[in-house]
Amino acid sequence: MSRAYLGIGTNMGDRLNNLNDAIEHIKQFENTEITKISKVYETRPWGYTNQNDFLNLCVSIDTNLKPEELLQKCLEVELNLKRERIIRWGPRTIDIDILIYDDIICNGEKLTLPHPRIQERAFVLIPLMDLKEDLIIKGMLLKEWLNELDAEEVKEYIGDE
Ligand SMILES: Nc1ncnc2c1ncn2[C@@H]1O[C@H](COP(=O)(O)OP(=O)(O)OP(=O)(O)O)[C@@H](O)[C@H]1O
Ligand SMILES: Nc1nc2c(c(=O)[nH]1)N=C(CO)CN2
């Protein structure tokens, strides 16, 4: 089995329900099991700031799906949960990114691994630390990358959906 880390985000509709729906779909992926789920975080929008706050979490999975197969399954979940791509980095019902897949490094047309913007995003680094604090991204520990960012934009979600 391979180990992969997924980043999940939503800022449209019933955000908590969207996260739970995405997790239930991932549980149905063949030859895949979720090994850990991070806390849920309320996060200020990154990249395109004129939109609602997000809920974000990360999950670790063990899977026999190949990276491209895993990506296809994630895109299918996004379609199933009615994701529409109107503005880059804009509002979405759900977004599932493959952050890390074993120690694979690739830069293909459809898939880049590790995800190229992990180290720029506190909304990814903080939930990832819930899963594996000693992960190394581009030669630095998660918390070292976090030192460069504004972690104020990420707060543990207390639930008011
Ligand atoms: N590691 C990855 N995880 C998910 N999608 C990826 C990855 N690498 C490349 N892609 C490609 O990116 C395409 C666009 O993804 P999407 O529109 O969800 O971007 P985004 O998640 O909004 O922005 P960002 O990529 O900055 O997180 C996907 O259709 C997929 O083919
Ligand atoms: N807070 C937050 N901001 C984002 C997010 C996200 O999941 N959370 N996803 C984006 C595109 O992947 C762009 N900006």
TrEMBL record:
Q: Which InterPro entries match?
A: Hppk, Hppk_sf
Which reaction is recorded as catalysed by this protein?
6-hydroxymethyl-7,8-dihydropterin + ATP = (7,8-dihydropterin-6-yl)methyl diphosphate + AMP + H(+)
- EC number(s) on record? 2.7.6.3
Q: Where is the 7,8-dihydro-6-hydroxymethylpterin-pyrophosphokinase domain?
A: 88-99
Gene Ontology MF terms in the entry: 2-amino-4-hydroxy-6-hydroxymethyldihydropteridine diphosphokinase activity
Which keywords describe this protein according to UniProt?
ATP-binding, Folate biosynthesis, Kinase, Nucleotide-binding, Transferase
List the protein's name. 2-amino-4-hydroxy-6-hydroxymethyldihydropteridine diphosphokinase
Q: Which CDD domains match?
A: HPPK
- Known pathway: Cofactor biosynthesis; tetrahydrofolate biosynthesis; 2-amino-4-hydroxy-6-hydroxymethyl-7,8-dihydropteridine diphosphate from 7,8-dihydroneopterin triphosphate: step 4/4
Please state the gene responsible for encoding this protein.
folK
Q: Which organism is it from?
A: Tepidibacter hydrothermalis
